[in-house]
Structures are given as C-alpha cells and as structure tokens.
Amino acid sequence: MSRRSYRQRENHIDVMLSCTSKDLEKHREQATQAVLRVGMFPHVMTSLVAGIKNPYEVSMELVNKAEVYVGIFAHRYGYIPEIPENPDRLSMTELEYRRAVERDIPRLIFVMDKSYPVLPEHYEDEEEGKEKLKALKDELQTNYTASFFTSPEDLRAQLIQALHAPDLRERALEIAGEFEAEQGDVIPRPPSLYSVPPYIQTGQFIGRARELALLDRWATASNPVKIVAAIGGQGKSALTWAWVNNRATNFDGILWWSFYERGATMNAFMRHAIAYIEQGDPDDPKYRNMKHDERKTRLLTLLQGNRYLIILDGLERILTAYHRLDNAQVRDDEVQTDLRACTDPKDSDILYKLAGCNPSKILISTRLVPRVLESHTGALINGVELEQLKGLAPTDAEALLIADGITFENTTILHRFLKQFDYHGLLLKMVAGRIKKDRRARGDFDKWYEQRGKTFDFTRMDIVQRQTSILQYAMEGLDDYAKTLLNRIAAFSDGVNFDTLEEVANPEGNLDKFDTALTELEDRGLLQWDSETDTYDLHPVVRGFAFKGLTGEERVNTYNRIYDHFNSQEYSYEVDSIEQLQIPIMIFQALVGAGRLDDAAQFYSGSFSQILLFKLIAYPTTIQLLQPFFPDGIDQPPRLTNKSNQSYIMNDMAIAYQLSGDSLRGLSLCGQVLESVLEQRHIGDIIVGLRNYGDMAGEANRLFMQFQAVMLNMDYAQATGAYLERAYAWLFRAYSRQSDWVQAEKMQAKLTEVKDSFYYYYQAEMHFQRGQDPTAMLEQTIGYGRSTLAIMWVYGLYILYYLQVDDIPQAIHYAEEAIKLARRSGSAYLARYLARLARVKAKQGLFDDAISLINEAWRGTVVKFDEAELYNSATEVYRAMGDTDKATENAVNAYEIAWADGPPYINWYELETAKAHLDALGVPYPDMPAFDESKMDKLPYEDELRAYLEELKKEKAEKEDNNDAE
Length: 966
Fold this sequence. Notes:
CATH architecture of the domain at 193-388: 3-Layer(aba) Sandwich
Number of strands: 13
Largest sheet: 6 strands, parallel
Shape: globular
Distance between the termini: 78 Å
CATH superfamily of the domain at 193-388: P-loop containing nucleotide triphosphate hydrolases
Number of helices: 43
C-alpha cells in the first residue's frame, strides 16, 4: 500500500536520523524533537522495539522509505555488522549514509565541534574504526556544507533551520510522490505489526507496571475487549503502544488503528483489517466495494478463526461528544451520558459484536466509554473489561521527575506534595518544569519545597482550583516573549501545525527564539504536542488562562494574522463534514476575534451559512459560531451596524435553536426578526420570517399560532406575488396535518412548479397519513436532494412505511441512517428516530433494546410536537410486552399532547394513533378542552404586520387601477 494511505497524512516527509555514537543519545533526542517540530516524521534505529532479527535489513528499510537523510557524527565510527552484505566492513552509520547517496535524497550533515567536551571513552579506540571515521568525515566535509554543533540544543536549532528550507521540503515531497508510484500497495504481512498511522512516542515511556501487568493478564483471559479510559494527557496511547510493541505475544497478527487521523472511520478500519489479515490491498475494489454487512461478517469471521490483536486508539472520536466544533476542548468530566453514543448506529453494532470475537482481542483506548458496551444499568456487557487510567504510581512519578532532571532526597515530603493533585501527569509536568527553572533550586525539589513548595496547600481546593494555582505558578518566570507566544497560541480554538503556528504566533520571524520559547513552554507542561494529529495545542485549562492575557491591540493583531493566514488558502464548500470546513471556520472566528463583527456577518451570510444549516445540518456548531454576535444576550439584537445582517444572523440563530429542539428560544428570536424586517419594509424577508415563525410555533405544539402565521404568510404572498408557490406548500402541509384533505388537495393543485425537496416530502407525508404508498414521492425528494434535513426526514418516513408493511431489514436500515444524520447534526429529531427504531425492536421481540431506545429518546432534547409520537411508540412497545398499565399511561399522555390547542388545531395522525391504542386497551379518551380562540396568543407584531399588509394591498389596487386607466 502507498505510504500516504498507510499514514493517512498529506504532505508527510520521513526523515532518517543516523548517529555514529551511543554518547549522542541526548543529541538524538533533540534531533528527533526538531524533526517533529517542523511536522516531519523521524526514523531512528534505536527507536525500534526489541526482537529485531536483522538490524541491517531494518536499517536499510528505514533509509529506503525516507525522503531526507540526517547524519550526526561525533568521535566513534559505530557498529560494524558482520554480514555478507557488508564485505567492506562499513559501520551501520556509513552504510545508511551510502544508501542515502544511492537514492539521491537530500542529505544534511552535522559534525560535533572540536570545542565540545568529550569523555575519553567516547572516542574511537579501534585503529580500523579511527581510519574509516577520518576518511568518512573528510569526505563529508569535502562534499557537503557540514554544520558543527556545540550542544544538543545547538544541534536542534540548526536542524530546525535546515529542515525549514523550502527547496529541501519541495524535493522531499517530490521524492515521496515518486516513492508512492514505485512502491505499489504493500502492507505488512501478519504477524508483523500493521500501524495506521505509526504512533510516535515523543517522550520516554516510564512506569505503569501495574497497568502493563493487567494487560498481560487480559491477553490470556477470556474477555475479548479491554478498554483503557482516561482524560486527555494521561498517556493512554503511550501505554497501549508500549504494551503492544514490547509485551504482546502469541498473536497471529497485530493491527493498530488510530481514529485521530482524518478520514479514519470504523468502516475504513474494517476494510484495512480484512485486507491485512487476508494479505490483500485495502484499496483493491474487492475491499472498497464490499457492502457494509458483508464487511462486518467477514471481519468477525476472521477474528473468530484465529488469534489477532486489534488496537482501536482514540475511539472517542466516533462518539457523538466529539462531532462538534470544539471537540478538542470538551471537558471529559463534564460530557453528558447521552453524548457517549456512536454517531453512526452501525459503529455501535460492530463494537457490540466485537465483544464476542474470541479468540481475538480488541484493545481500546478512549476518553469516553462507548455506551453500546454498557447494559441499560450502566454495567459493562459480557466480554468487556475496563481500566480507568488514573495518575501515575508514586514510584513512576519519582522516575518521571528524575527523567525531567529533578533531584530529591526526602521522598516523604515529595509524595505528600504530589499526592495533593493525585499524581496527575499534566500537573506533575507543570510543577517539574517550574522547579527546573527556579533560579534558587535549579531542579532540586528539596530546596524548592523549603523555599516555595510549603506555601502550596491544595488540600482544601477542588481539582479546578488546584489546576489554576499550579498554572499560575508554572507561568512565573516566563519572559515577555514566551508569555506573549502562549497568549497568541491560545487564540486558536484547536490544535495547529508548526507552519501555521510560526506564521501567526512568530511574526518577528526569529526561528531560534521561537523554538526556544516553544521548548520552554513544553518543558513547563503548558504546551502539548499531539503525536496522533501532529499538532500543537493547549490543555483547555491552560487555554482559558492564557487567553485572558491576549488583550487590546495584541489580540486584534493576532486574530488578523490568523485571518490573513487562512484567507490566503484555497478551500471548497464541497464538503461532507464539519472537519472539512476547518478553513472557513478559522476565517470566521478570526474576524470575530479581531472585533470585525460586520465583516464576520458578511462572510457568514454567504455559502458558509447554507452549508452549515442545510447541508451539514450542524445546529450546535452554528449556535457556537453565532453566539459572539449577541454579547448583550440572546434577547437583544446582534451588535451589527448593518440591519440586513442583523436580521440574517437572528434568523439563522432562530433556525439553529429550533432544529436543536429549543423552539421557544427560536420563537423569541423569530419575533425579533419580524420586528426588524417590518421596520426595514423587506417584503420577502417578512414572508420568510412568518413562515419560519409558523414552523417553530408548530414544533412548540402551538398549532393555532402556526396556522395564523401560515395564513398571514399566504396573505402577504398573494398581495405581492412573492414566494407564492412556497406559501401554497406551507398551507398544504398545515391542512394535511389537520386532516383537512379537501383544502389540502386544493393547495396541492396550485403547486404547479414544485422546485424544492421539501414539497415532495410534504406530499409523501400526506400519502402516508392517508394510508397510501409514499415511496414514489420519497424517491423524488431524495432525487432532488439539496437538503440533508429533507433527506433525514425522508429516512424517518421510510422507517414508518417499512414498519407498516413489515419489512424489518429496511426499517432498521433507514432508522440507522436517520439516527446517524441526527446525531452528527445535534438534531432534536433524534428522539423520534430512536422511538421508531424502538418499535422495530419490539416487533422483533427485542424488548430490552426497545425500552433502552425509548429511554435514550427521552433523555435527550425532545421537540414538543414529537412528544406525542414518543408516547405512542412507548405504548406500542409496552403493549407488545403485555404491560397494560404502562401502555395505558403512555397512550393517555400521547392523546393529551396530540390534542394541542383542540380541533382543528391538532396533531391529527398521532391523535388517531393514540385513540387506536386506547380503544385496544379498553380505556376511555381523556376529557380535553375545546378550542378557545380567546385564550390564544397573537402573533408578535400582528397588528403592525396586518396594517402594513393593508398598505400593500392598497398600493397594488392603485397600481392596477392606473394600469386599467392607461
């Protein structure tokens, strides 16, 4: 397989680090960090795991797949492999260099400066080695502009500069493309590890003996699935990677799959896993074109046929909680239970079935435990065990401090201090970084504690207060440049790569100073480099603290640079996910951050808003983006100078709230929109505003108000000729939902130029409610296919239709598709689709699943209008179970909700359904009040709207009279 698909990263450059001596360990570490810093991928022989049979072959393989060679030379010649392939007795380092020359890849040469202090034992002591080392160095210094380094840090700085050269990067990317064309599609053969992408350990892995031992025991026990769960930064990936590479044995094959990579879906995982086990090519059409159910069955069969180890790293990325704009900033301890469902129900099904895939093993690292792996009581299902990764063990904390250069003698005081914050890795790193920088302690914990540590008393603080106190201390002593840099980084809402960070946060252009400051921020635990995504990011606590320091002109300038950076890049609105909108989102947020609200509103009101609301149906994201326009509260107009932009922003915010299930807030905003457009005398916007107000009133179950808005909408359309076709469509739907088929058919007859998928859907809905086949209209709706929202509704109606005709597989298929769309968008319509799937499960006799789905539907946000359907669905489930008491309770509730304002302003279909249930149960209908118009609220600004309508009618009549006179 090609390397790009292997790594799942674009513009990825491999760098081979070749070192002559073991005494270069610190230099190698700094060189590795330098490569990572510039967004490239380091390969070092010493980073490979134990058990390599032929170091020469592995070493040559690393050089063969590199685009850049970096040679680091000191005073030893290095190891000489005694193999037939090495008749000239060259060292491994020289062999690597010679192979790089043969491949003609860019070569960077670094030689230890003569002034560097070196211990005697670090000089070459063999005559053969001395001669060959001198000859090699002479050749290198003759043929290359060698750089001389005087310290590990000096090597790092020089290497960053060298790797930043545009011509080197251009040539490396060119070689990468040539390599992909030559290599073909080859993936490792089992039992060799297949990692997509390879995990990079950025620091030394320390301790975790207890957790490693638990993984050892799990590997030989009966449970197929092991979950390692923890908040971000606790080392889940590092732990599982260390165990997989050093302790996992007796497996027929091992696949590491990271969900941190863009495009890394469960479906893609299955395709790669099958191809790996069958020793095929995952890009082969036979794997790509495989149907989902066939793919799932094939994988489970393979896993049950032999003993494979599958690692699913970062599984939280397929859960609903992380399908949002600020996924990197979601606080793990505050994620709601209903956000732990898989976005795609098919993923839930796969995870559930993996719990029975013996003799294979599934190791999962995640921030959140997927709800599908728990029973309705919250206990783990059979076949699954959980390890909640906590802070480090005390001895591991000691080792980490030592590795960070901290010394100590009084371990009693040390542990008393560290225990205050539960040996949390992030906080431990922050404290260690500060102790190391303390001028009076210089890394001596005992001295630091006597001078500073005694003043830290966290025993009476909660974890947030502890974090804040440690954070304040961690930032003490930073110079102004480093503090400003941290504040600038906080302006990004998510992690960014090195190039973006440098352009925006380092406008001074001093790369050495920039790298030094980044290193100090990392050493202090304030800045995090994420190996999975190759990005620099801040912990949410750090980000919130640092962002407060970004004020005034510095804030405006930083956001303007962010705007300039992303606005200069190409992007497209041909997207299928929020992730693909990263650039326009950053442009928008930069304009808002710079205080350019009118520019931001103008940018939003183009294609950006249409994609967000109607293609991606990204309601929570839309609300998050638009919130800054309402600094005075949602009940006040946006702070914009342009009235038209004000109306547009309020209208979209109203729609986003409505479709998220907050119809009342949407109604309030829609009322403000009507006031604004009426003041501006925008006829088209008034018509649209009335239509939207009617929709939201309907979802709030205020059906009389909905009808009034629809009728006034029609009056305006007829008086002006604007949006007349749409007015007929909305009135058609209102009549059909009241079961006034005569009036509905009159309106339908006027729909002579149907131009919207929604119109087809409304007609399909009426067909279904009248007992007719809606599929032809549903197919036309999808064929028109502009609106994802309409498609979601279509899938929902298909569920009801296939339930009606007892086609269970089709009902399940469309339920899964509707649920997937609703979860991804954050739509409150999710509840209705969960309820419909519950009815399917009840028909199958799967009553536990059905009740679980009903409960899940009620736990989320429920549109008031949909409550009647949820109660009716629960009634059907309980009737199938024989629980007449609960069935009766739910049927009565369904009747009362569907009654709404009283006939004719009712939810007719659900009211009839509730009646049928009550009749079957032998229960009388509830006594409900008749419709009373005197108790109904008027539309907002109704008098003003009707007065303006009369003006329009008068103008129209005068114009017609003048035309007749002429």
